[in-house]
Give the backbone structure.
Amino acid sequence: MPMRSEPVTVNVGPQHPSTHGVFRLRITFDGEVILDAEPVFGYLHRGSEKLAEERTYTQVITLTDRLDYVASMTNNQAYVLACEKLAGVQPPERGMYLRVIAAELQRIASHLMATGFLLNDLGAFATPLMYCFRERERILDLFEMLCGARITLSYMRVGGVFQDAPEEFWPALRIFLGEMPHYIDEYERLLSENEILVTRTKGVSVLTVDQALNGSVTGPVLRATGFPWDLRKVDPYEVYGRVKFDVPLGRAGDNYDRFKIRIDEMRQSLRIVEQCVEQIEPGPVRADVPALVRPPVGDAYSRIEGPKGELGFYLVSDGSVAPYRFKIRSPSFINLTVLRDMLIGWKLADMIVTLGSIDINMGEVDR
Amino acid sequence: MIRELPGEELARHVQVACPGAVERWEGLCLWVKPERVLEVCQTLKETPGMGFNLLNAISAVDYVEYFEVVYHLTSTAHLHSAVLKAKVYGREEPSLPSVVGLWLGADFQEREVWDLMGVKFLGHPNLKRILLWEGYPGHPLRRDYLEAPR
């Protein structure tokens, strides 16, 4: 006998373990099926864009650390590239290589977090997460050697990096590069063919190429739909034009592809780091830029391929030491646009996995 | 490499389809009349050879006498990008048409501009605050915003 039911609106979050911070979804259910979903956020809004207007260009680097706080290196990189474009500064070769090495390590760390938490959300409680954190810890140790910090790094500067890598960094990096591929194989063995994971994620919350492009979706979520768009390939910045790597693509655009693509991207990041270690030459790491950078009047938009998608900064200078306008184009925020379309018709349990597969970071969504 | 199209080249294409919409161009930027933004965006998206299918970012800058709304667009097929700007005058109810109908990706970004800068997007299906709460006094990213009353 068919059951009669009425639509019910439920708040998921803001305090909910699967929402990766303080994120709320207002969902209308018919039984367990999602009829409508509206993301509500802003709980972590700190006004970074306003704060930057009263800080010098160098001080703003510390604000970028706190956007996507699990990927500070790439935030630093995107911001200093925008400053360099605005001020017309060319960093030295060694500085660029160090930045790319740091950024790719950070991408691996960020993807490890994404993979670990996605599996946590799937119900593989804590074990895969701890596996992923084991390797992330090694990357944080490497960062500690580079700049003394583990999370809020502020390693990069306008015109290069804060300091050259210490001697002990290189052997530690080589050991990591030697061991990491085995760890990635381990995740694949453990997870990619796990029957529960495959049944829960294959064919769920499919995103098409057209939907993704129309919604300004970028990064692994876009590539999981099968669309080859990686700014490191299509618009190479720093030294990405000199290294060989592939752009992993998904086919179906479902949760499984979004999970798998991050594992494949970690392998490519390792390849990039290996080539950078071979190519890097001794030399200065920072261009001769004054501590108080005064870019000429004008504006610049610069973007990089962050771990979560296109991370861009739009800077406007009025010729003073502080940016007149500092705008963050955050991938987590914009990728959420399509969340509603991805959720409708699926169930509550799928919603948690879908949200995990987009890989959002609330520091970056709310800024 | 993604080629940044000069404003002059963009202006040539836009002037054919939307006469009178272009205000001026300089370097890599094209300024258009705010009330014709939707029309110009549609042209840039749909004209063969332009094909701007990806909206990267919508930003707003407060220059005190006017607001400048900046659109960064990219074509994934032709590998070129464009910067489109519109000057919006008035501090009470500055407004310009919404482009959500063309790119869904404008949805949250336009809401953010409204929330923090107080520029209205006419025709947006759900234009309400996104980072702050309804009832928050003022728009904090404006240059004349001092501090929220306690």
